[in-house]
From TrEMBL:
Family matches, as InterPro entries: Furin_repeat, Giardia_VSA, Growth_fac_rcpt_cys_sf
Keywords from the UniProt entry: Signal
Position of the signal peptide: 1-25
Protein name, UniProt field: Uncharacterized protein
PANTHER family given in the database record: CABRIOLET.-RELATED (PTHR23275), EGF-LIKE DOMAIN-CONTAINING PROTEIN (PTHR23275:SF100)
Amino acid sequence: MVRSGRRHLPLVALLALLGTDMAAAAPNLCVANQNGVWSDQEELDRVGACKVCSADGTRCEQCWEFFSMNSSGDCVPCKATEYGEGTGAALTCISCKADDPSHCYNCGGRFLLREEPDDFQGFYADANGKCIQCPTPHCAECQNVTGVCLQCEPGYGLVGFFFDPAAAACTPCKAGCARCESADECSGCDYGYLPDPATGQCAPCPSNCQECSAANQCSQCKSGHTNVTTDGSACAACADPLCSFCAEGVDKCTSCSENGFGPDPATKRCVACTTPNCSSCSDSAATCTECGPGYVLDGATGACEPCKVQNCSWCRISSQTGQEECESCLNGYTSSVANADPITACVPGSA
Ligand SMILES: *[C@@H]1O[C@H](CO)[C@@H](O)[C@H](O)[C@H]1NC(C)=O
Ligand SMILES: *[C@@H]1O[C@H](CO)[C@@H](O)[C@H](O)[C@H]1NC(C)=O
Ligand SMILES: *[C@@H]1O[C@H](CO)[C@@H](O)[C@H](O)[C@H]1NC(C)=O
Ligand SMILES: *[C@@H]1O[C@H](CO)[C@@H](O)[C@H](O)[C@H]1NC(C)=O
Ligand SMILES: *[C@@H]1O[C@H](CO)[C@@H](O)[C@H](O)[C@H]1NC(C)=O
């Protein structure tokens, strides 16, 4: 709950300042919040969300974004339209009507349709101030009130807008293109591709190459790979599966992956972490620093112990209670109580 942008002086202080007969006319002093939307809850509770106070300092003239002024002159939080649990809506209301915080003028956030690949739609504020999913599939941003698409989600280009905005559609960019104005005009390539001025599209880098300066010139191989030709035209997998970089050659590891320790200076190879169910070790192969899903590090023994909650994927010892708490469930399981923190039981189902 956010309190008003006004600060009431204690009555005793007012009486001392003004004399008892003037107390009734005492002004309510406005306090401008300097940090605005970056304030923490404690600061909002203390000073409120007024952005600009009136010249005489008695009232708030303008509230910060995400707040609107009610008829008493207080800045109250805008309320985004409610969508139920599990609908994929992650929504905020950036500006709303004075006196009606539920009437949104500018909706922020997105509607996640599918996690993989990251597929979402934006929201717009309709004429009634309700936040609605943009009607055009794969549209990231659309016009207030009309819902006409202005910008597509990454990997899609807006087509047809010029001829008939209302009929504009988002079409997939061509292979290797991360952002496009239309399917024919690519403006940014995916990792592993480079712009090809001849086609206006993206051409693949050499295989297993993450970044290249030309189609046969790799400047950075993918993790776990190294350039195996002196001209950088090819990348090959490091010989050691625990190796993440082998810049000096496929059999000479320079950096081990998280679940490996080393490399050993003599053999240039990595040693697997020795603690069972450990996902990351440092200092030595036997010093586990992080356990795999479903396990928690026992600070006293250094062992990975199964989470107490069955089918929990991530549990940790709370610094506040000293108790083990489950934070998330394994894939295919969900908290028995929605939004529970900590989770007390993981049951079959999806979040
Ligand atoms: C305005 O907001 C403040 C703080 O939330 C509240 O105390 C007050 O009653 C509101 N005024 C009206 C008219 O709703
Ligand atoms: C919607 O309207 C708000 C102001 O009410 C404006 O700030 C915002 O940019 C508009 N959004 C779009 C996509 O036109
Ligand atoms: C990889 O490229 C670097 C310079 O970019 C070079 O120093 C190194 O010798 C190359 N490694 C191999 C195996 O060709
Ligand atoms: C945890 O380690 C034990 C002993 O090495 C092994 O049997 C078990 O399969 C491991 N659990 C997981 C989830 O990998
Ligand atoms: C989930 O927990 C149950 C016990 O509640 C257990 O029988 C089952 O093997 C677990 N499933 C997985 C995938 O760990």
